[in-house]
Amino acid sequence: IKTVGRSGQYAIKKQKIEYVMAPKTSDLFPELKGVTPIGWPKGTSFDDSCAMSDCNGWIGLFSTPVRHDMSAAVRHETGHELDFSFIKTIGVKFTDTSGYINSYASDLPNIKDKLSQLDFNIRKKMQYLLQKSNSKKTTEGGRLESFAEIYAMLRGGSYTNSFNKGFDSVMDELFPNTVAYVKKLLWYLGDKK
Question: Taking Cα atoms as reference points, which of 185, 193, 187 lies closest to residue 86?
């Protein structure tokens, strides 16, 4: 939790976030047993996740499956909580503000051309951050996941980078306006580096 910085501590304090441990996702969220998350491959389910935010005050940390970097997963899920904490203060998620939408949308036209040049695994994960967003229309899923991964990247490394080395530098290159906008938010929330 220390790796989330002041902005993460803001989200934790603002929403009174609790971290809850359980063997697997469906132990805390039984309604998700057997459900495939949006953008995930067929045959997977929420039980394949090592952490999950309910976007309403708590994050589940799961002992199965044990994969990758749990601290990166905590940073990613804390990013989701930070995003949703804005509902309580400004009435909408941070990713639904015009500033975030415009920053994210301004990065999208350049991404399509660059995607074909990327390593297959990084390209596949980048598609997850887009969630079918394109230069004409952003999707809620694309905005949510890009924010969570960019937040995690800026706080010490994204979850995706923990198993696809080099992903963060590609994300930084492909989403320069979005990254700059998130950095601005973190600066306003007290991360003055």
Answer: 185
Nearest to 28 by CA among 56, 59, 1: 59
Q: Which amino acid makes up residue 151?
A: Y
pTM: 0.85
Q: Which two tokens stand for residue 172?
A: 């930084």
Query: And the tokens for 60?
Result: 């589940």
Secondary structure of residue 90 in the 3-state scheme: helix
Cβ atoms of 24 and 44 closer than 8 Å:
no
Instruction: Answer yes or no: are the C-beta atoms of 154 and 181 closer than 8 Å.
Output: no
Distance CA 126, CA 146 (A): 9
Joined tokens for residue 143 = 């905005």
CA distance 158 to 165: 10
Model pLDDT for residues 39-97, shown as the tens digit of each residue = 778 898 989 888 888 877 778 888 766 565 778 888 888 889 889 888 888 999 999 99
